[in-house]
Design brief:
Helix content is 55%, strand content 13%. The protein has six helices and seven strands, in the order αββαββββαβααα. The strands form two sheets. It has a four-stranded antiparallel β-sheet.
Length: 247
């Protein structure tokens, strides 16, 4: 009986130990292009070789548009709640466990946030890429932790990632633009006020004076015309009488 109990207890201990030692099998999730945004920079993520992700221990995926942003996130939050990190093979886009891949860095390599690191499924692929490009530094997964992870600021500005400067420029430009519109509006208003106030009223009075002058001239003409006709008529009569008497 005691042997049976010992056997049962031993089996339980083995099962518990096996259960504790078993690692969760985390799986990468698909990138939903046009919807998924990077956890660090909030940029939309393209479904390409630069996309990376990590799966938290509670099963929640966090996605990044650049391997550098994944390391920015883990530097701030640590790895205690991280179940697995994934990168993609540069050529096939196959998802790889971060610790199993190899990496090539050069500051001129174009990545979304200008960190310049590409990932490869094996060392041979990474070395061949360096040979083809004529540049690049080979790194293992363990070397990523000591990498500086400094983005190439010149490339970021060239790709329009200088959000702060661009935003300020837009804001200032908009304010100046609206200010100019307002001043233009005030000037336009003043101009209308002057034309209606200074120019319109005198011209209106002048038109009345002109009309009055026309009326007076007309009346004068009407009064003078009958007398003129009368004088001409008398002259004609006298002329006829003289002619008649001479005959």
């Amino acid at each position: 009986m005691k042997k049976m109990m010992l056997l049962i207890l031993s089996s339980l201990v083995v099962l518990v130990a096996a259960g504790c030692g078993k690692k969760e099998d985390y799986k990468p999730v698909a990138i939903n292009e046009g919807v998924d945004r990077c956890e660090v920079c909030n940029m939309l993520i393209e479904d390409d070789h630069n996309a990376t992700q990590l799966i938290l221990k509670d099963g929640k995926p966090l996605k990044f548009d650049d391997l550098g942003d994944l390391f920015v996130w883990t530097k701030e939050h640590g790895l205690d709640e991280v179940g697995q990190r994934f990168v993609r093979d540069y050529h096939s886009l196959e998802w790889l466990k971060l610790e199993e891949a190899y990496y090539v860095y050069d500051k001129t390599f174009q990545t979304p946030m200008a960190f310049g690191v590409y990932s490869f499924k094996d060392k041979a692929s990474a070395e061949k890429f360096i040979e083809e490009q004529g540049k690049g530094t080979l790194m293992s997964a363990s070397e990523l932790d000591s990498h500086s992870w400094e983005p190439n600021m010149d490339m970021m500005k060239g790709h329009g990632h200088d959000h702060e400067g661009h935003g300020n420029g837009q804001s200032e430009g908009s304010e100046e633009s609206h200010g100019s519109d307002n001043s233009h509006g005030d000037g336009h208003k003043d101009g209308l006020g002057d034309s209606h106030g200074d120019g319109a009223e005198p011209s209106h009075g002048d038109s009345h004076n002109n009309e009055g002058a026309k009326d007076e001239h007309k009346e004068g003409t009407e009064h003078s015309d009958p007398s003129d006709h009368g004088e001409h008529k008398e002259d004609a009569v006298l002329k006829k009488d003289n002619e008649h008497s001479e005959k």
